[in-house]
Each structure stands twice: as C-alpha cells, then as structure tokens.
Amino acid sequence: MRRSRAVRRRPSAAAIAAACLLALTACADAARPTEEWFPETTGESAAGAGDGKPGAGQGGRTPRALPGGAGGDDGATQGGRAAAPGAYHRWGLDRPLAPPPEPPAARPVRPEPSGLPAVVDRVPTRDKVVFVTIDDGVNKDPALIDMAADLRLPFSMFLADSAVGGGTGEDYGYFAELQRLGNSVHGHTLTHPDLTSLPYAAQRRQICRQQERVADRFGVRPTLFRPPYGEYDAATLRAAASCGVRAVPLWRAEMKAGGLEYREGDRLRPGDIVLAHFRGPGQQGGRTMTDVLAELVREIQRQGYTVARLEDYM
Ligand SMILES: [Zn+2]
C-alpha cells in the first residue's frame, strides 16, 4: 500500500523534510487529470481593486440587515455597495434571489467529539437552501464583483495560494473585494496537491500555512478547509484540526461547462453544498464566471431553493 510504504520509509526528520519538499514540488508541477484544477493562462488581468484589508468578520453570523433580494429592490446596501433596483435582470435572472431563512440558532455542523473537523457534503437542514462554494482562485473576473453586489449572492471561497498568485501568492486583493461584500474566505492548501500522497508533516504545512496566509491577508482566521480534489485521509483531518479547522466541506453537486452535475440523483436537496471554480472562458466552454454563476442561480431558483451562507451552518 502506498501509505504504509511511506510510513516505513521515514528514517529521520531531515529525510522527511526532504521528502516533503520533493513531494510538494512534484505535486505542484503534476497536472492531475481532473477537471477541478485548470491553471489560467489566458492573461486575464486581475481586478486589483482591493488592498487586502479585512472585510466584515466572516466568522460571525449573517447580519440580518442584509436581506436577500426578494422584494429587495430597495436600494439597500451590502458591504457599503448599493444594490441597484432590478439589477438581477442584468444577469439574466427573472427574479431576485430569495432571502435565506433565519440561520439556525446553533450551527448544525460541529467538530467531532474527538476534536477532528466534521467532513460534510450536505448540511443537515430542512431549509430549502443550498450553499455555493468557489475554489482555487485563478480567474479574477471583475464582473463577478458587480454580480455579487447586485445579486447579494453569498458564497464561500476556498483559495489555493499557487492559484491565486500564480506562484507569487500576492494577488489576494480581488478576493478581498468579494470578502467586503460579505463572502467568506477559507484555505485550499498552498499548492493544491493530492494530500493523500503526502505524509502528515507535509500535509500540515500545506493546510496550516495557507490557513495562516488567509488569516494574514483577510484579517479573519478561517475555520473551514477544503482538500484539493476532495481527497483526504486521517492525517489530513489531524493536520487540519491542529490549526483550527472546524469543518471540511466537500460537495454534492458541481457546476461544470455542461451545467450542474450531481454526485447522486438528478436534483438538489436541502443543504447541498455546490462546488464551482474561479475559471475563465478558456476552461468552461467560452463562458465567463458570471455566465456560469448566473446559470447556477437560475437552476437553484428553478428547483425552488435559495442560497444561504455556509458559515451560518458550520
Ligand atoms: Zn481546487
């Protein structure tokens, strides 16, 4: 077995460190044959509007002064930005996103009694809500900032340092803009490896350094973490717990070029976590981020759901 071989091979701390470095390099370079990770090479410029200052506290509860859009053509503001009346028309929607129900008094997803983070792909709730998560951080379409403000669409971002900065890790301003609109930011490792190929120490470095980087850049310590490709093992959970991760959200449905794909069944169910990616037109059939998200919102509405804030539930 791959993992037990790795364990037997551990002769010394120095050797482990060397192995980690090699593994990280290999993982960063290896183009894993998955649709989850598409480095952006189309040269789309970042919005660069943000300066990395922290936005509203993402760990807190949803401020109830931030209603959703139903009947919400009232010019109310979110994150200091006015929502223009009827702005949802601009994004091809025939109605605004319905306001989510009041968040539960106690978050239904809690760490395991052992202290390890809970791993969930669907939040236990009867509310007709789903959760939108967007991963990696390669594409930085400025139009998404307008859309997020117009639709008051809450989503959670899981950023990999290598994806955000193309290796420099210094391009977080765009995501700070999205955070100011009330969207939360969490970690997705430094270089997006398959964590199950790494020993504990390397996993901990990948997970915890990125959680720290997010905390530094956004001013709020992330409590959620998503492993690349959804791949994790026992060491992943121990490593994540060691740096404050309370929950590991996976997903039940994924937004792809052809539309929403379900891990089982053919429709959304209450509490489903939906995965999308910061991708450019080159990676999704010529469609922009806002094209894809508008299609996702329309499908969520068509099935009678609205979008709630993941951090209110875990
Ligand atoms: Zn990813």
Automatic annotation (TrEMBL):
Residues 49-60, 68-78 have a biased composition (Gly residues). Residues 128-314 form the NodB homology domain. Residues 1-30 form the signal peptide. InterPro entries: Glyco_hydro/deAcase_b/a-brl, NODB_dom, Polysacc_deacetylase_ArnD. It comes from the Bacteria. Keywords: Signal. Gene3D superfamilies: Glycoside hydrolase/deacetylase. This is Polysaccharide deacetylase family protein. The lineage of its organism: Bacteria, Bacillati, Actinomycetota, Actinomycetes, Kitasatosporales.
